[in-house]
Write a structure and sequence with these properties.
about 45% helix, five-stranded parallel sheet, Rossmann fold, alpha/beta
Length: about 200
């Protein structure tokens, strides 16, 4: 009995090691979620944070010009006004932009923006964030805002392997591998599943 349990444990450890190595060397495979150019929605949501290059707001402006959604919600305290200015400077009319300025984490982004989405009876939303944050953002919003279909159209700034050291992209990626299980343990947000909160 003990030998068979040890053998199972040994194989599980080997699989976990191989998955860990794969994630370490190919993080883009595990962290990026992209719904593709066919995704359209009622609203684009610019999730706060990023590398400091404002890549999320620039991607949202690009998607707005492509008619992916008719309006934009900016969520997150601190860079909301900067993102608003970037959107306007890149062709988004001020009247098409709404801000949520209280949240400071991805979970809070989802909870606070969820109140707006429910009030405005939004059914489909496109999340705009950085590529390395896309999985956690989409799973978190889907978990805390049931009833809304969330698509993901991330920015690919710093996606190429030779750019990972630029602007702290490597650090952001590595932190995501800690935050994904932390959100699962603390909040119940399964990084692989899609179940909504009861």
């Amino acid at each position: 009995m003990f030998k068979s349990l040890f053998k199972i444990f040994k194989w599980l450890a080997l699989v976990a090691l191989l998955l860990g190595l794969s994630a370490w060397f190919y993080p883009e495979i595990y962290l990026t979620v992209d719904s593709g150019p066919a995704a359209t929605a009622d609203v684009l949501i610019v999730v706060g944070g990023g590398s400091g290059q404002h890549e999320r707001a620039l991607q949202a402006a690009n998607l707005f010009r492509q008619h992916a959604a008719p309006r934009i919600i900016i969520t997150g305290e601190g860079d909301d006004e900067i993102n608003r200015r970037i959107l306007v400077a890149n062709g988004v009319p001020a009247h098409a932009i709404e801000t949520e300025s209280k949240s400071t984490t991805t979970r809070e982004n989802a909870v606070c923006t969820g109140k707006i989405l429910r009030t405005e009876k939004v059914r489909r939303a496109i999340l705009v964030t950085s590529w390395y944050h896309a999985r956690r953002a989409q799973k978190t919003f889907a978990y805390f805002v049931p009833g809304v279909k969330f698509y993901s159209r991330p920015s690919y700034f710093g996606f190429d392997r030779d750019e990972w050291k630029n602007n702290g992209i490597s650090r952001h990626m590595r932190l995501e591998f800690l935050k994904l299980p932390a959100y699962w343990i603390r909040y119940g947000v399964n990084p692989l599943g899609g179940a909504a909160k009861d």
